[in-house]
């Protein structure tokens, strides 16, 4: 049914009508020639009638081709350009085969690229996994670093406190060393027998007696008397001249004398 619907019925009817008209005209001419016993090229009337019939058939074919050529581009191409069309078909067939070869190559390369892509995707997934692990580890390290910084701050504070304590202890140690050195020197003096007078020992004393009518001695005179007595006692113990003994009084003692 689809084939019948696709047929050009108008063209077919025109061809049938033209063929019928030409056949009728040929038959009519043949009958008249036969009746009149017309002869062409010296032939018998019967042969002449056959020639007219043949000519009518040829004319039908020519008219049919003319109608088809006028009304159909496909018929014109088939009649006048068949070899050109065949060459085009051959060229297109060669191009099609070449294109198929290229298509096969492209399909092969596409499969290779797909395999390569799958491999790259697997590698990318592995890299992303390692990246996630690294990020998690980095977060842990950041937290540990924060804790370490707090501990470092505490340690620095403790270190500063210990440094202050060390400085204080250094001062105490220096003071103890000085005291130890002083005691050591005193001990050496004791061992060598060079100590003549001990602390708090009285080396000189005097009694101030005033008679009625006489002036009271001044503190300077009393001090001079005590100094002479002290030099004499020290010189006697050390075996030196009293003039070589020098005595320096404590200002507090001078105030007491005054």
Strand content: under 5%
What's the number of helices?
7
Q: What gross morphology would you assign?
A: rod-shaped
Q: Averaged pLDDT, please? A: 75
SS-based structural class? mainly alpha
Q: What is the strand tally?
A: 0
| Biggest beta sheet attributes | none
Taking all Cα atoms into account, the compactness measure Rg is 76 Å
Summarize the structure in words.
By secondary structure, this protein is mostly helical. Among the domains are: 7-80, no CATH class; 202-257, no CATH class. The chain contains seven helices and no strands. It is rod-shaped, with a radius of gyration of 76 Å. Residues 254-258 have low confidence and may be disordered.
Nutshell version of this structure?
The protein has 258 residues and is mainly α. It has helices spanning 2-6, 9-36, 45-71, 73-80, 82-192, 219-238, 251-257.
């Amino acid at each position: 049914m689809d084939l019948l619907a696709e047929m050009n019925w108008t063209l077919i009817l025109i061809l049938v009508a033209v063929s019928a008209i030409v056949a009728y005209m040929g038959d009519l001419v043949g009958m008249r020639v036969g009746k009149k016993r017309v002869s062409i090229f010296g032939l018998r009337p019967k042969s002449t009638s056959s020639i007219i019939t043949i000519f009518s058939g040829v004319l039908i074919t020519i008219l049919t081709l003319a109608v088809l050529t006028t009304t159909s581009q496909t018929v014109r191409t088939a009649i006048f350009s068949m070899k050109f069309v065949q060459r085009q078909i051959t060229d297109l067939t060669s191009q099609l085969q070449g294109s198929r070869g290229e298509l096969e190559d492209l399909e092969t390369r596409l499969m290779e690229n797909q395999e390569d892509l799958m491999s790259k995707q697997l590698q990318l997934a592995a890299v992303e996994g390692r990246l996630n692990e690294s990020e998690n580890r980095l977060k842990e390290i950041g937290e540990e670093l924060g804790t370490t910084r707090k501990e470092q701050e505490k340690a620095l504070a403790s270190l500063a406190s210990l440094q202050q304590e060390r400085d204080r202890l250094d001062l105490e140690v220096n003071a103890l060393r000085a005291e130890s050195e002083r005691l050591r020197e005193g001990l050496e003096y004791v061992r060598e027998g060079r100590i003549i007078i001990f602390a708090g020992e009285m080396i000189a004393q005097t009694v101030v007696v005033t008679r009625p009518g006489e002036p009271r001695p001044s503190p300077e005179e009393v001090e001079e008397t005590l100094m002479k007595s002290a030099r004499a006692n020290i010189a006697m113990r050390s075996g030196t001249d009293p003039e070589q003994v020098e005595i320096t009084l404590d200002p507090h003692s001078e105030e007491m004398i005054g």
